[in-house]
């Protein structure tokens, strides 16, 4: 169990283990994280091995914030397949203000705990997290 310091939010051991299972063990394709009910710890909401990006998008709530990690695979012409781990801070415009504020202020607690992230995405609507948008982000600087 993680120790709290003051009012800060911490990433649970389970959250960190799931990330390592995705990164090192390739056990998952994506992980959704949420704050526990007392807003003191970041926990795993769901982990999936579905390779369909639309399955991932379908899991993003229309009216609430969350964090997500996605093992994004893509192909560059003449260079073959690549894989980048992407961190999403999902905070749709329709989410409650308090939820957006809590998630924005606690993002660093999770983000700092995860090593090996290639890209950070701030999503407020589905166009910002579309496959093509993420592909453009992760493939920049790799040509």
Describe this structure in words.
The chain is globular, with a radius of gyration of 15 Å. Helix content is 29%, strand content 30%. It has a single domain (32-139), classed as Severin (3-Layer(aba) Sandwich). The protein has a six-stranded mixed β-sheet, with helices on both faces. A hairpin with a 5-residue loop joins strand 2 and strand 3. It has 143 residues and is an alpha/beta fold. It is built from four helices and six strands. Mean pLDDT is 92; it is low at 1-6.
Approximate helicity band: 25-40%
Which spans have pLDDT < 50 for at least 5 consecutive residues? 1-6
Number of strands: 6
Order of helices and strands: EHEEHEEHEH
The strand order across the widest sheet is 1-3-2-4-5-6
* Name given to the CATH architecture: 3-Layer(aba) Sandwich
The 3D shape can be described as globular
Radius of gyration, taken over Cα atoms and rounded to an integer in Å: 15 Å
CATH superfamily membership, which one? Severin
Number of domains: 1
* CATH domain class name: Alpha Beta
**What is the first-to-last residue Cα distance?**
42 Å
The fold-level CATH name is Severin
In percent terms, what proportion of residues is strand?
25-35%
What average pLDDT do the residues reach?
A: 92
SS-based class: alpha/beta
How many individual helices?
A: 4
Sheet with the most strands, sense and barrel status: 6 strands, mixed
Keywords: Actin-binding
GO cellular component, one term: nuclear matrix
Pfam families: Cofilin_ADF
Subcellular location: Nucleus matrix
């Amino acid at each position: 169990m993680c120790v709290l310091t003051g009012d800060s939010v911490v990433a649970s051991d389970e959250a960190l283990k799931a990330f390592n299972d995705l990164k090192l063990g390739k056990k998952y394709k994506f992980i959704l994280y949420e704050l526990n009910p007392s807003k003191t710890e970041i926990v795993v909401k769901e982990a999936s091995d579905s390779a369909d990006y639309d399955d991932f998008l379908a899991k993003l709530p229309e009216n609430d914030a969350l964090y997500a990690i996605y093992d994004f695979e893509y192909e560059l012409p003449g260079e073959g397949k690549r894989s980048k781990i992407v961190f999403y801070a999902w905070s749709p415009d329709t989410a409650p203000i308090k939820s957006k504020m809590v998630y924005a202020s606690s993002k660093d607690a999770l983000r700092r705990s995860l090593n090996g992230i290639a890209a950070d995405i701030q999503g407020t609507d589905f166009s910002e997290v579309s496959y093509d948008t993420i592909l453009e982000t992760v493939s920049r600087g790799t040509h």
